[in-house]
Amino acid sequence: MPQPAVPPPPAFVDAAPAIATTVQETPAPISMARPEQPLPEFAPSPTPAPDPINLSALPPLPAVETQAAALTQPLSPLPRQPLEPIPPHHLHVQTRDGEQQQFDLTPNAIPVEVIPTPESVLPVERPGELTPILETPTEAEAEAVVEPQPTLPLAPQPIETLEITADRQDYDSQRNIVTATGNVVVRFARGVFTGDRVRVNLTNRVMVGEGDVAMRRGQQVFRGETFEYQITQDRGHLTQAAGQLYQPTSGSDGAFTSPSRETAANLPERPASDRTAAQVPINDLTPAEGFTFTLGSSFGASGFPLSPPGSQGDVKRMRFEADRVDFDPDGWQATNARITNDPFSPPELEIQAKTATFTRKTPQIDVLRLRRSRLVFDQGFRVPFINRFVFDRRPQRAGLFNVGFDDGERGGLFIERRYTLFANDKVRWTVTPQYLVQRALFREGVFDPDSFGLKSNLDVGFDARTSLVGAASLPSLNLNQVEDNLRASVRLKRSIGDLAKPHILTGEYSYRDRLFNGSLGFQTVQSTFGAVLTSPNYILGDSGVNLRYQGAVQVITANTDRPELLAANRTNNRATLTRVQGATALGKGFRLWNGKTLPPTPTEGLRYTPQPVQPFLQLNTGLSGVTSHYSNGDRQQSLGGSIGLQGQFGHFSKPVFDYTSFNVTYAQTVFDAQSPFLFDRIADSKTLSFGVTQQVYGPFRFGFQSAINLDTGENISTSFALEYSRRTYSVMLRYFPEQQLGSFLIKIGDFNWTGYDGPFAGSGVQPVTQGVIEAF
């Protein structure tokens, strides 16, 4: 059984985090501060990924046998602007014993007619009825019909050819209809279709499939009972539809491409059918990051941010059912739709809608509109749901809204919404108005300027290596107090070396950064100007030891208590010094014991979690060294070490007390002198952090995490959390008494899987650790 990856040592500074993942009102300042050992957050202990599960020898769909390769082989979706439709010019039909026929579908060969209704084109035959495919033409009409003749292949480009492979074929020259039966595979524009029987009307260029049909376009999979496809217009519909949607490639999977840009390498040469794989039950199930929505500020016991406010991430793979799906080059519309992220049936979380319309706006933006939508939990509890989703694949897209709690600067509860003023491929400028609800109701008044706040972010991507990030925040619109309220930061970030694991060089100016320095509480650094070089995380050989380092040169203006640095006549206690700092951290975990996981089924290992819980016991160790030199001659050099034990027991599958996780860590720092500043001064040289998370009943878990200063007995930080956890989603409430912050988190899980799924039944606070400002 593979062991989970050992957590890396504390990250010192990610000099320019992307706007979409920033966890503070202004981007994390690039400076170093007081020593406080990293303390584990409340989040459940890491769970090792289970061994891959291989369930492949299972029965196929009825009347289907060879669909696997065609629908499971990727078709190389291209991330570019869709081109004008180029319909197929040739129809190539062959049987598996080698009989071949080819027909010309160009407008010169067969006149384009108005597409009649499906019933008049290829009516579906019903048991006991003899229904002709088309009316028998009169003698004059027969003479006027241009009869396509079988010809030798002219080796056209693959995208120009509609290729049909089947066990048997029949061509009715008088009705101009080709019929293929038995394990039919059809390759057409950027897609593969399979079914029991296919008929093609060459005159009207309409294809009808029957009998457990399936269609894949890139990563999008559609299945149904019947399928109608208008070849030249690339539109059609399925009845009793079901399938899978993969959001990252939806913008390109449905688009035609020019023959000059799409070659035979992008299409399977001789795809078999997809039906064998379509009946393999869910296997190789792996959870992904998914979607997280945070209301308020979320910090761990030692001040480490756990998740940023607002929304981040998305659900990439979904499955659906509908009575009917109509599709065209711009998207699709489903009637009586059900959509879920749950790979199992019945789904525990799903969206139901009278209609669902998916539209490709640009190669990077898709829109899903729902009518009469509801969110359904466990096939019972229903709540009204939003009617519009925007899938924006551009980086750093804004969340819908955010509700936060910040008792320090914003007077408690506040609400905010982010608006994008300007955005293109390289530049994004957003403004976020805030309304400070608690301050307005209980202090200043509803329309007082102090009841309003504002944030703004600017992100510029010059190229793959260089970016600029700027941010500003005002917790009050009282213009008489701008100097005391404004916080701002500008960073220019450059990646050096291998882009997969680069060093990051950042030049930065920040104004009034807000930091949390353990026992010293919140600190404000008036200004910082300088540069920081941060390394990637390295693993030293086969030892499993993680290494990371950082260096910085900065001019800092901040509060001090050294009289020799302060003027006799002054209005504040700030001093300006140049600081040169270097830091290195090592870390390694030792797995002491691994338990066994339950099978990954909805009733056992995946009952309350997105992956089976593996009991374990692990010893964690860490070593860090920091040296800081100041322009007045002072220095602060420190060496810190930590040792901790963490583990989890149970499988979180039974109704009561089937999950317990714990952690305890002792950390000590020795140093030779102290910083002249307060914000990076070592105040907690010996700390003990500990936490417990316990299943109470069913999906409910309660936990706490705390850290104390062993020299003074003072509580550094504490957090409490209550979680409702399910396989596909979880809801968590957190509260942090020392920081006077709170948060409400919703997580929607994302999964990758293979096999057939079956039918439905901003606080603006940064922590400081051993003199280094942590940036996540």
How would you portray this structure in words?
With 776 residues, this protein is mainly β. It folds into 2 domains: 19-52 and 291-295 and 302-312 and 392-773, no CATH class; 64-122 and 145-233 and 251-279, no CATH class. 5% of the residues lie in helices and 49% in strands. It is built from 7 helices and 42 strands. The strands form 3 sheets. It has an 18-stranded antiparallel beta barrel. It has a 16-stranded mixed β-sheet that branches. β30 (538-540) and β31 form a beta hairpin. The longest helix has 8 residues, at 437-444. The protein is elongated. The two termini are 31 Å apart. Mean pLDDT is 73; it is low at 1-85, 108-159, 254-283, 298-312, 752-758 and 760-764.
Topology diagram in text:
Blueprint: H1 68-72, E1 90-95, E2 100-104, H2 118-121, H3 139-144, E3 161-166, E4 168-172, E5 177-188, E6 191-201, E7 206-217, E8 220-230, E9 235-246, H4 250-253, H5 275-278, E10 283-296, E11 298-299, E12 305-307, E13 310-313, E14 317-328, E15 331-340, E16 349-362, E17 365-371, E18 374-377, E19 381-384, E20 388-392, E21 402-406, E22 412-416, E23 419-423, E24 427-435, H6 437-444, E25 452-461, E26 466-474, H7 482-485, E27 487-496, E28 503-516, E29 522-534, E30 538-540, E31 545-559, E32 574-594, E33 616-630, E34 635-650, E35 659-671, E36 686-697, E37 700-709, E38 715-725, E39 729-736, E40 741-754, E41 766-769, E42 772-773
Parallel strand pairs: 1-3, 28-41
Antiparallel strand pairs: 1-2, 3-5, 4-5, 5-6, 6-7, 7-8, 8-9, 9-14, 10-13, 10-40, 11-12, 14-15, 15-16, 16-17, 16-18, 17-20, 18-19, 21-22, 21-40, 22-24, 23-24, 24-25, 25-26, 26-27, 27-28, 28-29, 29-31, 30-31, 31-32, 32-33, 33-34, 34-35, 35-36, 36-37, 37-38, 38-39, 39-40, 41-42
